[in-house]
Amino acid sequence: MSIEKEAIGPLSIEAQQRNRAAIERGEEFNLAGSFILEDMARHLDRDKNPDEKLKTYCEFNLEIDGAGITLYSGIIPIQPVSLSTGPRYPCLVPGESKELTLILENCTDTPLEGIVQISPDGEAMVQAQKKTFDFESGDIATFEVEVIAQEDIRNKESKISIEILVKDEDEYKILRKEDLVIPVLDASGAIAYQALDNCYILETNSWRMRLHPTPPMEIREIENKITGHRITGWFYLPQLGYPFPDVGSEWSQKELGVKLENNQQSARIILSKDSEERPGIHYKAKYCATQDGLLQISLNLHNKGNSKYDNLGVRIGGWSNERGDKISVPLTKGLYQLVSPEWTGRGQIPKKPEYYEEEWASVEVDNGNSLVGSVWSHEDIQSIQLARRPMVPTLEYKLDDLSPGVSVEKQLVSLVIGQGGWQKVRKVWSQTRSRSIDIHEKPPIREDIEVGFLNVNEDSFGPVQSVLFLDKSRVNQVRIQMEIIHREPIEASGVLRLPEGITASKKEPIDFQTGDFSIEQPFLMELEISCETDCGAFCEGGRIDLSFLDRMVTIPFTTIVYDSQANLNYGIESHSGTNLYLVESKDYELGVSPSYCASLVRFGRKGENVFYDTFPEANPFIWDDEHYSGMTPILQGWSIWDWQSAVPKEKWTIEKVQKGPWYGYEMRTLLEHCPEIEGIEVTISHLLLQGVPIVNSCMRIKNRSKKWNSIHYGFRGVPRLGEKAQSEIHTVIEGKRIAYKPTAVSTALRPDSEEGWGAFHNQETNQILGIISNNKSNRALSLSNGGEQVQWITLKDDARLNPGESKNVECFFVVAPSINMVHNLKDMRSNSSNRQHQRENL
Predict the structure, then answer these.
(1) Residue 465 sits in which domain range?
(2) Which of 155, 399, 409, 710 lies in the 20 to 30 Å Cα band around 297?
(3) 318 part of a folded domain
(4) What is the pLDDT of residues 563-603, one digit of tens each?
């Protein structure tokens, strides 16, 4: 038998020279010797880096009776005394002091006695001091040290010199010497440095990025310093194509050169290396912490060779273990939010850039307590892969051809790390693209599965999610439309269950198969549906059950039953010379008065007005010298207070309006007296649904002047249920149902914009007035308690109008049987695009 040995890495072997021997059966052969690690061997913590390949090992080549075998012995380099700190990555701001814990561990097999010498290196951050230790094998010793960053400190990378000396017989010998970087965040708010564990750190006041010092040199962790939330994994080392490797890449296998840059505007880590797969290409991956707190990642390629490279691409992505709770994605049809446990977005959100309205996405954890947003470039983007897990997207870009001597740089992604919601990410996107967005408006919020009902016989109703409108007096042709966010076509089996008192031409429950449907192809189904004669106006209990291969979904819906044959009466009452225009249907009435500040004066059961009513008087009330009761219009110039508005001076025309089963009045004026907004045409309609206590109120404004204008507009009024000044207020704020019991304290409740509903409940009479805003893009609705004497309903929006431009604000008032019914009707809307009204001048 013969043995040949070879040391790999910073390692040498001392062994006996007897490398050949003859071994009898049952005998042993022992080769004694020693491994000696050189000083340059890097310490390796297998607990922190269990997957890192060893750089130091011995290779034994054995030949036994002519047959060869190779054995390996890996050597893990460790420091005799390990040194770490608590916190792991200390960081200060000018003027701050912090207690720092030095942690020493005896990694040898013998007791150690020694001294730790601590001294400042450059600008003084610590007092020179000595600490002694005496510990057994495996023991830990800790020392508290105060570090101080002076107000006028100049060096962002201040250091503390640490020497560990151990006692060898009667003298102390230096065992280890380290420079501990204590980064100081100055006005730039960002710093790049190499930490004690050799990792490269990019840090701001709110987040910290850790990049691994050995292959794969990827981001291993991003920590939100405010909340402590961390994203760990292997991600965001750019890969070159085409084609892209299935696993790993040239760059993930290389030890890249590292350069740290710190200046007054930003901090950067730059990784660089020459390519072997594409000779002549010099690769630079740049990680930049900007002054405004973004993490920007870009790639620079320089062709220093003699050959042209075409068909180039870059992909950035990776893997992380953390799962977000909600992902928001701005697609062409709205802002889609995915929250279901089963569908994280990986197979649902489209990859093609043409589906995206804007180039950003956000992932939230713990209701926005931690936020990771991504903003990418719209130029040359080829593919976008988004999901709640991993929380970082995979992006692919096409690059320009690279001729000899030419460089190309591509901004790949900007990460928004912090707290908040998707609005924060969208704002960064708008600044990146130099696009102005109205902070008061939001894109429509969509869900990954939506069901809309359309009454084919009556187009005055829009395709309303979760609300089905039916006419009691005829057979209704109903179209059910299902839309889904799913990248590939998918099938589902479904069951439709109608509320009690509602019947269909098919036997119930109604089973159906969707066939293939996807983001590009919705599912449609038509039915004939009838209502029984004793069916009420508000019907609950309807639902659609959908069964996908990997998900079960139940979608409840509410049915509103109106009666096109119910009695309908128009009338005019005159009070002290002021006309009140009425429309009555069944037991309910609506009354408006153009000469009484264009107010919706009455609504409710006959004799039970749900609004405070002093018509035709405009008396002093609370802080108003003249208070017009009911729901009156808000029309204010941008810098005009409400009491300065001159709406009562405006002259309004009025006409009867019918829009399908909606009957009421439309009032119109061209503003002449309201300061700053002269020349704005205002059209107000209040329409009662036939036989049902629901009023659709809409204000449309159009700039008829020749100048740009800005305006506050909407409705405001005082609810009064059963002559009681205060009622309990119900709504949703920050995702939670609120039941506010009024006191003498003034307060205002502003529902979440995507909810947009509220209700006043008189618990003594059990009267309920619901308000549903159609302006879901902002928090237009406000429900206020003004003390013991008054409560307010305010629906107000802001508009900036060029000449000829128009906008509208719309809501519904409903006398509801329950608070839950108001909540169920929150998505109710009319088909405001239908202008086929029947009109009659008055």
Answers:
(1) 448-562
(2) 155
(3) yes
(4) 999 999 999 999 999 999 999 999 999 999 999 999 999 99
